[in-house]
């Protein structure tokens, strides 16, 4: 005669086998192990033109110089995109951006290259990491320094993208809404 412990153990194993069989039948036997190639899909970066146009801004290509091109290695400059943003045919801003795995290093190099160029006329310097619930963290560098550029400059790093924005006075609200939409 089997001991009570052994009998209990056999009943438990029988229950587990029954549950496993029922699960297999109910799911249609479709369970598969994920391959090494699968995983969490990387979020694609937003389309600047589509988002800008959805906010009432017109977008035009530009060859205006930007500060990012000065800190990027020559091989990375080919990935740099730049556009002029117009509101009611009035220039609201220029925006340039680069996608790179090295975007944190590029942002750090940009900050280091700007520090010695700041003049005594530097105003409203913001250099911080911003975190909001439900959004990815973003590094922000913003300032107004006529010795560097007559317009307010804003640099924003989020995920693997770095933006450079030259804001025309009077269009700060539109540009800030655009940046919020681009960095969600």
Describe this structure in a few short sentences:
With 184 residues, this protein is an alpha+beta fold.
Explain the overall architecture.
By secondary structure, the protein is α+β, with helices and mostly antiparallel strands. The protein has a single domain, classed as Protein Transport Mog1p, Chain A, CATH 3.40.1000. The chain is built from five helices and seven strands; from the N terminus they run ααβαββαββββα. The protein has helices at residues 4-26, 48-54, 68-71, 103-114, 172-182, and strands at 58-61, 81-87, 90-99, 123-130, 138-145, 149-158, 161-167. The chain has a seven-stranded antiparallel beta sheet. It is elongated, with a radius of gyration of 27 Å. The mean pLDDT is 87.
Topology:
Layout: H1 4-26, H2 48-54, E1 58-61, H3 68-71, E2 81-87, E3 90-99, H4 103-114, E4 123-130, E5 138-145, E6 149-158, E7 161-167, H5 172-182
Antiparallel strand pairs: 1-2, 2-3, 3-7, 4-5, 5-6, 6-7
Per the principal axes of the C-alpha atoms, what is the gross shape?
elongated
* CATH level-two architecture: 3-Layer(aba) Sandwich
The N- to C-terminal Cα distance equals 68 Å
Described by strand count, sense and barrel closure, the largest sheet is: 7 strands, antiparallel
Which labels suit this protein?
single chain; 184 residues; alpha+beta; Protein Transport Mog1p, Chain A; seven-stranded antiparallel beta sheet; 5 helices; 7 strands; elongated
């Amino acid at each position: 005669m089997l001991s009570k412990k052994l009998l209990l153990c056999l009943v438990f194993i029988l229950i587990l086998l029954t549950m496993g069989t029922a699960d297999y039948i109910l799911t249609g036997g479709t369970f598969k192990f994920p391959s090494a190639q699968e995983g969490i899909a990387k979020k694609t970066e937003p389309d600047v033109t589509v988002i800008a146009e959805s906010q009432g801004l017109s977008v035009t290509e530009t060859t205006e110089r930007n500060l990012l091109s000065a800190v990027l290695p020559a091989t990375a400059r080919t990935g740099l995109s730049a556009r002029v943003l117009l509101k009611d045919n009035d220039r609201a801003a220029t925006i340039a951006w680069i996608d790179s795995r090295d975007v944190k290093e590029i942002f750090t190099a940009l900050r280091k290259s700007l520090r010695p160029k700041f003049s005594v006329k530097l105003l409203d310097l913001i250099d911080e990491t911003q975190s909001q619930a439900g959004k990815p963290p973003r590094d922000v560098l913003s300032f107004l320094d006529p010795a560097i550029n007559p317009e307010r400059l804003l640099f924003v790093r989020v995920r693997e993208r770095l933006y450079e924005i030259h804001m025309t006075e009077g269009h700060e609200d539109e540009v800030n809404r655009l940046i919020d939409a681009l960095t969600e």
